[in-house]
Amino acid sequence: MKRQSKFRGKRLDNGEWVTGDYTEGSPDHHYITRNDGSVWQVDPATVGEFSGIPSREGQEMAEDDIIRIETSHSGAVVDTVVVFKNGMFCYDAAQAKTVKNPDDWKQPHDFHKSNWWSFNPMPLTSGFYGYGNPAKTTIIGNLHDNPDYFKS
Questions:
Q1: Using DSSP, how many helices (H) and how many strands (E) does the chain show?
Q2: Does residue 26 sit in the same domain as residue 94?
Q3: Looking at the structure, do residues 113 and 99 belong to the same domain, yes or no?
Q4: Residue 104 reports pLDDT greater than 60
Q5: Are residues 20 and 89 in the same domain?
Q6: Which end of the chain has fewer CB atoms within 10 angstroms, the N or the C?
Q7: How far apart are CA 136 and CA 20, in angstroms?
Q8: pTM (two decimals)
Q9: What 3-state class would DSSP assign to 133?
Q10: pLDDT of 19-63, one tens digit each?
Q11: Burial of 10 (0-12, 13-18, 19+ CB in 10 A)
Q12: Domain shared by 90 and 141, yes or no
């Protein structure tokens, strides 16, 4: 069975998100074609592929989504970004921040900068300590609509 790829991008004419098949017509012309046959020119910087992996709510995660992961072993909560690296969908430790770190957990608050993250990038479905477990993952936004999210 062949895997069907689906992409999203922001339309150039109004900034709205559109999903469908992606075509690069030339370096300056990038398009998303919807199932209904409509074709929209999109900003190439916003184009991302859907992973085929659902979040806790059943929404399909896509590149550049900001996701919140609840760990199963400690109760820690971390926000990070979906990326496509090394031929797989992963979450990126380089863009991560701790939202909740239980007092009894012995890892540093900025554990994404510690040795624990030496596994970066980690596959979305790895399940390592509960990270990457889609049942513990919520989509909370994306980098294109929230470009400063990880700067604070």
A1: 0, 11
A2: no
A3: yes
A4: no
A5: no
A6: N
A7: 27
A8: 0.81
A9: coil
A10: 999 999 888 899 999 999 999 999 999 999 999 888 888 899 999
A11: buried
A12: yes
